[in-house]
Write a structure and sequence with these properties.
heterodimer, A: alpha/beta, 11 strands, globular, B: alpha+beta, Arc Repressor Mutant, subunit A, 9-stranded mixed sheet, 3-stranded antiparallel sheet, about 40% helix, binds zinc ion
Amino acid sequence: MSLYQHTAHQLRDMLRRQETTAVEITESMLERIETIEPEVKAYLTTTPELARSMARVVDQRLKQGEALPDLAGIPMGLKDNMSTKGVRTTCSSKMLENYIPPFDSTVYQRLMQQMSPLLGKLNMDEFAMGTSTENSAFFTTANPRDLQRVPGGSSGGSAAAVAAGTAIFTLGSDTGGSIRQPAAFCGVVGLKPTYGLVSRYGVVAFASSMDQVGPLTKDVTDAALVLNAIAGSDPWDTTTAQRETLDYTAFLKPDVKGMRIGLPKEYFVEGVNPEIKDRINQTVQQLAAAGAEVVEISLPHTEYALAAYYIIAPAECSSNLARFDGVRYGYRSETAPDVVTMYKESRGEGFGAEVKRRILLGTYVLSADAYETYFVQAQKVRTLITTDFQEAFQKCDVIITPTTPTTAFQKGEKVHDPQALYLSDLLTTPANMAGLPAISVPCGFDQAGLPIGLQIMGPAFGEGQILRTAYMVEQLTETGGAAR
Amino acid sequence: MSAKYETVIGLEVHAELRTKSKLFCSCSTKFGSEPNTQVCPICLGLPGTLPVLNKQAVEYAVEAGLALNCTIQKYSKFDRKNYFYPDLPKAFQNSQFDLPVALNGKVRIHVNGEDKELGITRIHLEEEAGKSVHSGDNILGSDYSSEDYNRGGIPLIEIVSEPDMRSPEEAYAYLVALKSILEYTEVSDCKMEEGSLRCDANVSLRPVGAEKFGTKVELKNLNSFRAVQKALEYEVQRQAQLLDAGETIIQETRHWDENTGKTHSMRSKEEAEDYRYFPEPDLGPLVIEQGWIDQIAARIPELPESKRRRFISEYGLPEYDADLISSSRKMAEFFEATVALFPDAKMVSNWLMGEFSRLLNVSGKELDQAAVTPELLAKLLQMLAKGTISGTVAKSVFEEVFATGKDPEAIVQEKGLAQISDTAELERIVQAIIAANPGSVTDFRNGKDKALGFLVGQVMKETKGRANPQLVNELLRKYLA
Ligand SMILES: [Zn+2]
């Protein structure tokens, strides 16, 4: 087995046993990138020299007998909406094609403290809006499981890199499913933490009240390790929660005896591929056989979640993306004769169709005439959805659902049908609306051999129990470990 | 203005808070630095940055609210006001829309001997925009514009009054009272010339006795309190003329032109922007506990209205003097410190309102920049009261004390400025003057009293103002009789 095929915790142990070096691991990754990137195209920017110099520091310290953090020497990639000082951060948009941030995002800082080498910045749907990475202004990433298919989105590059072995782990961001859906499509683990557990500072905002950064990894243990590294309050993001620090790996025990698993009937509806429903049900039965208690629950307002999400997220994005006006940085139309025309042309030319669609939607729902009927109503739906979950978690410890209604679709299949694409978010948006933690873990394949994702949702700050459940799923379905 | 209409005025005052750092980042708020030297990723609105609320700004806003008799809201929140302009890096301004930090205040004013209480609707916290410098008159008429983001993100409060003012004079008095309270509490520098205090005015007319308000017009570009008053006076006349001619007032924003002394239309209500306010998702609600409010309340100093009343009752100052002296905290404190050493309060207030204020004006100094102290002023007034020096000499000595801070007794001694009350010496001078001015002497003897004044003046000139004027008068009358 080549080094790039290992998980983070395996490589950590090998480094500690001096069976390999950080430089060897990084070189293996760079070689893998060279071999397979032309087909997968997960990276927008690679940073081999940054990775090598971090790896050398790790080896030096290891040689001196220093005890290093878990992720020291484990190479990773970041979704290209996370600010990296001196390394361009494009959000896969023409608008920021040449934007180089003068500061680091908190999540990147925390990974640097872990001494995790940065391999590069990963492709995504422009400004994290999309479910296929086809909305990247630069190129489409392929699903390493089937190169003709999409990797999902918006963190498509992050999921594809882990699946292709071009990064040991990556970070993605999830506003309506953007970590979990690509993780499901690519057959990797994707965790969206509770809103407020991980700092958003330096992560280019899409919908501020729902955005959350999380790991994409080869297995559940790695997800816990990366979460250990990035979780925790941040003075630069006052929406982060002040809580005691947890070691999430401590939850990873193959034991679900007495755990109450809720199955919401609203998530097993028509429109969700029967093959996926079957696979989820089978896994739940396996969990029951292992001692878990299965509870039928109801989340009655689920059917309004998607509509409300597509009001709130565009509303916030219309305001968050207004700063891209060509005045101080980013794309500027050079032909405009005056400032108003410059705004219009810069934004008209700099943004792609989907981003413009959502800005228009958001601008409309915030306008004086529509505010009460759309925005205020959507906020009420959001409260109802949150209450649904609070009531459900009286009856169960975790909720299990499919992550996506379908497995990975063909490139170009839905590109001209935004509504069909929006449906990919059907099962994932409620967790964002309620700010709850949710993980997608592989639980088998469909007949075409495409991975199926199982979603586990928990109560606020219930990362421990969803990780434990995911760990058990992994044991039962034997899907953990390196891809391909 | 004809007596047919009643004027209704409401004011919106923006006051920059005196915090050391900006509302959401740690950049300095210092005025007058090189452009774009007090900026960071947060106040430049770089992608991914988030606001961190400045606690001191909240305290100042609460303090202003308490000083203006508002109810502090224990739960308020920030909203985004969305609009595009190059001086606004995020393309939205963080402000408070429907849940401001303070509500329902009041301010007392005194106009033409009458007391009046004016309502304050609300006070909200918000951030400043940057500053645009256009190569032409405005952004669309310029070849280029430059942006300075040093000011961007400085905290300010907007104080919105009720439409309680009934004349431009009352509006002026309200502004003076408001500024005075903000200065007393030291929440704002209140420097209109540096833009740290700004004012927009709403004005409408209605037939006397009518309950319904007329259509209001908003006035902008009011760069001084006098400008507010003048613009309102102009606008009241303009609206009255339109109404007299049977025309209707258009709801609009009008620009005051200081040079022409006129207002002109900027935009009508239809052209007004839709700011698409919505709650700021990057900041939680602003929760202010009672304990915190109490702490802030405990450090509010005695306010001008209370000082004013005390100056009248305790020192017997006339209302006019009490008004003027109490309107500035520094002046009021100087007054009381001086009176503690020299108890003739009226004399102290005369000097403060007269010579002292004149010299402050001429020198452009703030009160605490002048070298004179209450001790020095008290010494000077003592010499004057005892007759050691004349009024004229006192003024010239004070000028020197004002500039140098030198002891007035030393100045008088060094320059030999003590008053001449020696009858023998003065008799000699008076006789010499009478001899030198036969014309005036004849005039006086023919009943022209004015001639006496001239002769007194000649004696004073001869003695460089040091002669005791009363004695000179007596001696002249004696020798002319
Ligand atoms: Zn700053």
